[in-house]
Specification:
The chain is of the alpha+beta class and 143 residues long. It has a single domain, classed as Nuclear Transport Factor 2, Chain: A (Roll). The strands form 2 sheets. The chain has a 6-stranded mixed beta sheet with strand order 2-1-6-5-4-3. It has a two-stranded antiparallel sheet with strand order 7-8. A hairpin with a 2-residue loop joins strand 7 and strand 8. The longest helix has 15 residues. It starts with a helix and ends with a strand.
Length: 143
């Protein structure tokens, strides 16, 4: 019986909503290859190779640097070993107070029940703006 990878991806987003990063990592192959969107603030490690690299380079930073960071899936489609999710990132960057509401697309490739490759696409300009703004008298201004 084939794996239901759409259900796996749904469970991943549910785990991220409760900040259960280990649940997500357990669904990744130990040698997972993860690609962040080009020009994304967390793309410096591209490609991230292995679960620990994904944890440290992406998840730890997201949940440490953002207030109530959410990944909200709006549509999840699967075809064989590939699942594509479309949704929104929402959160506030702690360093600037900038509220983010950006589209994302995640592509997951599975093998033997585990994620072996992932790719993120997002509005990288919103993330750049969130990091590069400074708070001045309660109003955000570009630096």
């Amino acid at each position: 019986m084939p794996e239901n990878y759409v259900a796996t991806v749904e469970s991943i987003y549910a785990a991220l909503a409760r900040r259960d990063v280990q649940f997500v990592l357990d669904r990744m192959d130990p040698k997972v290859e993860w690609h962040s969107a080009e020009n994304f603030i967390y793309a410096h490690g591209n490609p991230y190779l292995g679960q620990e690299a994904v944890r440290k380079g992406i998840f730890d930073r997201l949940f440490e640097e953002w207030t109530e960071f959410l990944l909200i899936p709006q549509e999840i489609l699967g075809a064989g070993d590939v699942v594509i999710a479309r949704g929104r990132y929402r959160g506030t960057f702690k360093g600037t107070g900038y509220a983010l509401d950006a589209q994302f697309v995640h592509v997951f490739r599975f093998k033997d029940g585990k994620i072996i490759m992932g790719q993120t696409y997002t509005d990288t300009a919103q993330f750049r703006d969130a990091v590069n703004r400074v708070r001045t008298t309660g109003v955000l201004a570009a630096t």
